[in-house]
Amino acid sequence: MFNGKFLTPCFKSKQPWKRLLSTQPSVVLAMSGGVDSSVSAALLKQQGYKVQGVYMRNWDSLDEVGHCTSKADWEDVQKVCSILDIECSQVDFVKEYWNNVFEKTLTDYAQGVTPNPDIGCNSFIKFGSLLDKIPEGTWFATGHYCRTNNGKLLRGLERNKDQSYYLSTVPEAALRRTLFPLGEIESKVKVKQLATDFGLLDIAKKKESMGICFVGQKRKFASFLQEYIDQPPGPVIDLDSGKVIGQHEGLYGYTIGQASRICHGSHKWFVADKLLDQNKLVCVAGSNHPALFSDTLVAKNWTWIHHQIPTLPVQVDAQVRYRQSPEKAILSQTPDGQYALRFTHPIRAIARGQQVVVWDQDWCLGGGVIDAVL
Hints:
Layout: E1 6-10, E2 26-30, H1 35-46, E3 50-57, H2 70-84, E4 87-92, H3 94-110, H4 117-132, E5 139-141, E6 146-149, E7 152-155, H5 172-175, E8 178-179, H6 188-197, H7 201-205, H8 221-225, E9 234-238, E10 244-248, E11 259-264, E12 267-275, E13 280-285, E14 293-304, E15 314-319, E16 327-333, E17 339-348, E18 355-360, E19 363-373
Parallel strand pairs: 2-3, 2-5, 3-4, 5-8, 9-13
Antiparallel strand pairs: 1-4, 6-7, 7-19, 9-10, 11-12, 12-13, 14-17, 14-19, 15-16, 15-18, 16-17, 18-19
Pfam families: tRNA_Me_trans, tRNA_Me_trans_C, tRNA_Me_trans_M
EC number: 2.8.1.14
InterPro entries: MnmA-like, MnmA-like_C, MnmA-like_central, MnmA-like_central_sf, Rossmann-like_a/b/a_fold
């Protein structure tokens, strides 16, 4: 029996997640209201599972300009589950999300680094608080594009949508309990076609969410952070000349490698560094300035997903961002226990706080938080 607090049970489920005496294997599916988790629900039911959908409520305040889509997404989850004739419930993780993900995100931005809250949400909420409430013997499932094999995390066949990067901190024990129904599907187009075939026409046409719920769909991230982080404006410095070329609105609102929105001369200026102790933003002219490239980084808080840790140093495929082609690099351990990666070719815009993730071909080994760029 699920031992968590539910906000809203749905349809015929008076006791959500209670395992029925049945020969059907049970699976609890994390549902978002989007096409990926909806098709996952249909596929699991088609494969003979007793599917129970759950929608996680992680945020509870309205956005000033747009709004968090949580209410509409929950309504879509209920519609999908009604069409598929499966049970669903909503569970509240607002407190857990605030304490374990949101506050850390704010702290990181205030300290001048660039975190990835999606990785934190998977680690602490979806594969943490949520999975902890699912009884042993019941499968867990998500709509991520990835695969597993004996606890190993593998890239999804749809390489353009592969999401193993976001699961690089999920431990092997959790992966052994998890199903990824979309892992073997080779294209997003096929997923949308399946949604139509399963009678989920509205979901098939639904626009894919690209933002973070607590920011809202129509709002700039920097303006959102301004409400929580008190940092004064300061000078913008041209790295090459050392001259002041403008003023920034708070260092938290800038990411290494991004266009700075600074108007000075005929150049387009890009962020090369943030000097927190001096409250200075350092920029360079042009998106391919040499200062934006580096071939070495050091990472902390490293997670090895599987117990088969490779002998170091070792050549791996590595990514410092989700939307990046894998690059060859040599992974080694530093004398103080951190991990260093030296890339074969310099990588653009490596930022402290980002997650670097490594693979052995399709096998995701794990990753860590970038602590230094050399």
